[in-house]
Each structure stands twice: as structure tokens, then as C-alpha cells.
Write a structure and sequence with these properties.
Elements (H helix, E strand, L loop, with lengths): L1 E5 L4 H17 L4 E7 L14 E5 L1 H5 L5 H15 L2 E7 L4 H9 L1 E7 L15 E3 L7 H13 L34 E5 L11 H13 L3 E5 L3 H11 L6 E3 L4 H10 L2 E5 L2 H8 L4 E5 L4 H4 L7 E5 L7 H11 L1
Parallel strand pairs: 1-2, 1-4, 2-3, 4-5, 5-6, 7-8, 7-10, 8-9, 10-11, 11-12
Helix pairs in contact: 1-5, 1-9, 6-7
């Protein structure tokens, strides 16, 4: 059996799709599972040993140069790649027009969300088979439910993200990959996110970092952009022994997460990756609903806050005390 999954972005959404691979492997152990994903996030499906092949795309980059020869050539290669293979199923768990367009290229029974279930209802027009899945479910369970309906089995048990290192966290010492080794307990403080209304106050991060320092846990603050790195540096400068981490590849960050004693972050894809990798994780919400997109993993994890109700620093330190 050959199955094509289409979930291209964003980082958190890609992480939320990992449990469907575990579900599929449980019901179809010998299936060949391919995954179409935005090139920026291609390291995430590769963390799951049940993914047979990752097919990177560049929809974001292509949109900036729709008429360029490079875009035409790359999209043409994708069309040729997907149309040259016969899949039993092509399942779009994203429900957007861009993902539906990719799904349409596949030679397969194309499945996706029904009109009222898709994030962009017009996407449902591109599928051969459409399924209604409640939009009130958590994103992880929506993915699992859709794939189960398409593949003909029932969802059972908690989500399993399938990341091998989740059961055996690595220590980043002598890895030989050019990353500086951390030979001490550390927490990853994920202070950056895509929207300013999701941020947590810098002063609160400092209090949390001092709390961790007093308990023998150093703080490391990753960043993805220059502005994020400057923010991380401001926070780290006020916490003894803390350090801001310069932008790095997603795969390197995954290794950092795997070795962390604790992951604390705002509503960002990396905090979901922390929980998926089995790390004790605290997610801080200020502008989104954790019942729909919060951490959902069988690991020590806590969601704090809600839309318009960011958590207090006292609540955060109390939650950290539970996790460590």
C-alpha cells in the first residue's frame, strides 16, 4: 500500500500530523508512506521512522516568484513526481487551497475535509472523497480522525508522535555535529513566536529564568531571526549563566530539545515539538485557544493561559515546579 500525506506547514501543524503516521503504521505495517512538506520544515517528518520518504516543496518561496523559470521548473518537477507514481491514497490534512492543489496532482483516491470542515472550504472541491470532522476537536485529533476515515479504521488510544528519541533523550555532548556541548541540566526558553500578541513579557521570562537558575538549571534561549535573537540576548543578560542561541537549522534545534531537562515556550511550533519529543513542557498562551491547539501528548505537559488571558509569572513558576 502506498500513501501520500499532504501537510506542508506551519511548524506546529506539521508536528500535529506526526501521530497519523503512527496510526497508519499500526493498521498498515508494510505501507510506503510519503509526506509532502514545506522545505523549511522537512526535518520534522524525518524524525518519524514510519515516514518512508519526504517530498519537500517551496510554496512560500514559489509565491514570491510565480513567473520565474526556477519556480516553473521546480513546480513542474513536483507535478511530474506525483503524477508518475500510483498511490492508493492521497490525504490532505491541511485543508487549504495550496495543499489541495498539491493533492490534486497525485494519481490516487484523493481525500480531505468536507466543505464545512476545511479551513478553506473551497479546498474540498479538489478531493474525490470528503469527510466531515468537527472543527471543535483539537488539531491533532482532527488529523487522526480524517486519516482514519479515509483509510477505513477507527482512532484508538492517545496520540503517539513516533519520534525515536522521545523514549531515549540524547545528551548533546560530543555529538560531532558542530553544536557546542551542554554537559549540564538546561531548560529551553522559547520566547519567540510569529505574532506579537502571543508573546510573554520579557520581565516574566527573567523571573522564570532566575527561578530555574536557583534550582541548578541553566537557561538557553533559541531565536530564529535577528529581532528574536536580540530579544533573547536582553533576557539572557539578566539571568546568570543564561545564553541566547543564534539561529540554527531546525534539525539542530530538535537535538537541543531532545537533551533539555525542560521546555517552556509561548504558542510556537517548537513548544509542540518539545512535547512530541517527550520533554517536560510548559506552553504559555496569550492569544489563542489551547483547547484547539495546545499541547496534546502523553508526556508531562501543561498548557497555561488562554486567548486574552496570558498566564502570570507565579502560575508559570508553579507549573515549572510540577514539571521538574
Amino acid at each position: 500500500m502506498r500513501i501520500l500525506l499532504i501537510k506542508t506547514s506551519s511548524l506546529g501543524d506539521v508536528v500535529h500530523n506526526l501521530p497519523v503516521v503512527t496510526d497508519l503504521r499500526r493498521h498498515f505495517p508494510t505501507a510506503h508512506i510519503e509526506w509532502v512538506v514545506e522545505e523549511t520544515f522537512a526535518d520534522i517528518p524525518r524524525l518519524h521512522p514510519g515516514v518512508s520518504e519526504v517530498i519537500p516543496v517551496a510554496m512560500r518561496r514559489w509565491r514570491r516568484g510565480l513567473t520565474s523559470p526556477a519556480t516553473r521548473n521546480e513546480f513542474g518537477a513536483l507535478r511530474k513526481r506525483l503524477s508518475s507514481v500510483r498511490y492508493n491514497l492521497a490525504i490532505d490534512t491541511q485543508g487549504l487551497l495550496k495543499s489541495a492543489l498539491i493533492t490534486r496532482l497525485a494519481q490516487a483516491r484523493r481525500c480531505g475535509y468536507a466543505w464545512r470542515s476545511a479551513r478553506e472550504p473551497l479546498a474540498s472541491r479538489f478531493y474525490d472523497e470528503r469527510h466531515a470532522v468537527s472543527r471543535e476537536l483539537h488539531a491533532v485529533e482532527r488529523n487522526r480522525r480524517l486519516v482514519a476515515l479515509c483509510a477505513g479504521y477507527a482512532v484508538d488510544g492517545p496520540p503517539d508522535y513516533g519520534i525515536v528519541s522521545a523514549s531515549a533523550p540524547i545528551t548533546l555532548s560530543g555529538t560531532g555535529n558542530g553544536l557546542p556541548a551542554f554537559d549540564f541540566p538546561y531548560a529551553l526558553l522559547l520566547t519567540a513566536t510569529s505574532r506579537d500578541d502571543k508573546l510573554w513579557p520579557e520581565a516574566s521570562w527573567v523571573v522564570l529564568g532566575l527561578y530555574l537558575r536557583a534550582r541548578g538549571i541553566a537557561s538557553r534561549l533559541p531565536a530564529g531571526t535577528t529581532a528574536e535573537f536580540q530579544r533573547a540576548q536582553r533576557i539572557a543578560a539578566q539571568i546568570p549563566g543564561a545564553a541566547a542561541l543564534a539561529p540554527s537549522r531546525l534539525g539542530d534545534l530538535a537535538q537541543r530539545i531532545a537533551g533539555a531537562t525542560l521546555v517552556v515556550g509561548v504558542d510556537t511550533g517548537l513548544v509542540h515539538l518539545g512535547a512530541a519529543m517527550g520533554r517536560p513542557t510548559l506552553a504559555l498562551f496569550a492569544a489563542s485557544d489551547p483547547t484547539l491547539t495546545g499541547i496534546l501528548a502523553p508526556t508531562p505537559a501543561i498548557n497555561l493561559g488562554a486567548r486574552g488571558q496570558p498566564p502570570s509569572v507565579d502560575a508559570a513558576t508553579a507549573a515549572v515546579a510540577e514539571l521538574i
